[in-house]
Amino acid sequence: MAREIINDLADIIRDHQDTLPNLEELDVKDKFKEVYKETEDGNLVIENDMHMCTGLRKVHMEIASLGPLDILHCIWYPDPEFDLPIFGADIGAILMFGTAAITDISPVDGLDHPIYEDIERINEYYSFKHNREIPTWGTIFSPYSKFARLDDSEEIGKFSDVVNEYLDLFVGAVWKSTMNYNRADERYEGQINYCEKQKKNDKTRKILEKYFGEKYAFSITPSLSLTNLELLENESKINTSKPFSRRATQEWLPINPVPPVTRIFFIIVKTF
Questions:
Q1: Which terminal CB of the chain, N or C, has fewer other CB atoms within 10 Å?
Q2: What is the rounded CA–CA span in Å between residue 264 and residue 198?
Q3: Distances in Å between the alpha carbon of 44 and those of 4, 39, 66, 226?
Q4: Percent of the chain as helix, strand, coil, to the nearest 5
Q5: Cβ–Cβ < 8 Å for 254, 238
Q6: What is the C-alpha separation between 59 and 22, in angstroms, rounded?
């Protein structure tokens, strides 16, 4: 049942991903594409899939399993030269315990984007029995984020519907968006702030230390320095003179999103 929940949501995300403009697959390094680790709790298996398209510098979906636990993590980062927010969704399903999930279209430059006029309507339509409190560092999320424990098929179905409708809006916004340099610096800084806040989850580091060791846990949460950054998840080399230009150089933002394994454990630790 847990795997079915993950697969169903993955299908919804892939269906929307396939409609993005000029979608291209990113070459993921082997050590991140498939991660395998034998642990006392079972075999930890992680698969990463990444793309890019016009308007989005990284379209990332990660599926992981550990014993009775199955997790899906999805994050779509915009190119700051396009006026777009961040889409994210995480869901974790544990046999006999239930399912926890969070999704949001998170602002990087305030809530003035037209997408929030439509998302408010969707947010009001869907409610859940067991909402969960956003952590103190969660100021990066919009007022329309959905974070809940899903105890039955009806609740799981509603969450899937929310993700589906949020993605309908988001993909539509991507298609409508055009290159806009106005406030690109602010959007760039907004993405850095998003990553910085995500890394304030100390509980995640403890889980990483348990399964991969302290050295690994430390190494995958590097400083977000623009000139000294170990880029995971196949980030390209940095040209600091053109921090977010890809028109001629095809170079990408020197922002390392929450690395593989890291963000996907947040909903599990916080909810169950």
A1: N
A2: 11
A3: 18, 7, 5, 32
A4: 35, 25, 40
A5: yes
A6: 12
Neighbours of 114 (CB within 10 A): 11
Q: Can you read off the two tokens belonging to residue 53?
A: 């398209």
Residue matched to tokens 């070459």: 27
Contact 123, 144 (CB under 8 A): yes
Instruction: Give the model confidence (pLDDT) of 131-177 as tens digits.
Output: 998 888 889 999 999 999 998 889 999 999 999 999 999 999 999 99
Task: Say which amino acid occupies 128.
Answer: F
Beta strand residue intervals within the chain, DSSP E? 24-25, 34-39, 42-53, 56-66, 69-78, 86-94, 98-106, 130-131, 146-150
Tell me the sheet residues that pair with 56.
Answer: 53, 78
Q: Are 105 and 76 in contact (CB under 8 A)?
A: no
Contact 222, 197 (CB under 8 A): no
Mean pLDDT within 178-185? 92
Question: 118-129, pLDDT tens digit by residue?
Answer: 999 999 999 999
How much is the pTM?
A: 0.80
Place of tokens 């698969």: 47
pLDDT digits (tens, 9 = 90+) for 20-76: 999 999 987 776 778 777 777 778 888 899 999 999 999 999 998 888 888 899 999
Output the CA–CA distances (angstroms, integers) from residue 142 to 106, 110, 121, 147, 224, in the order listed.
5, 9, 14, 11, 23
Domains, the chain, ordered by start: 2-271 (3.40.1500.20)
Question: Alpha-carbon distance 31 to 206, whole Å?
Answer: 21
Q: 265: which 2 tokens?
A: 């454990």
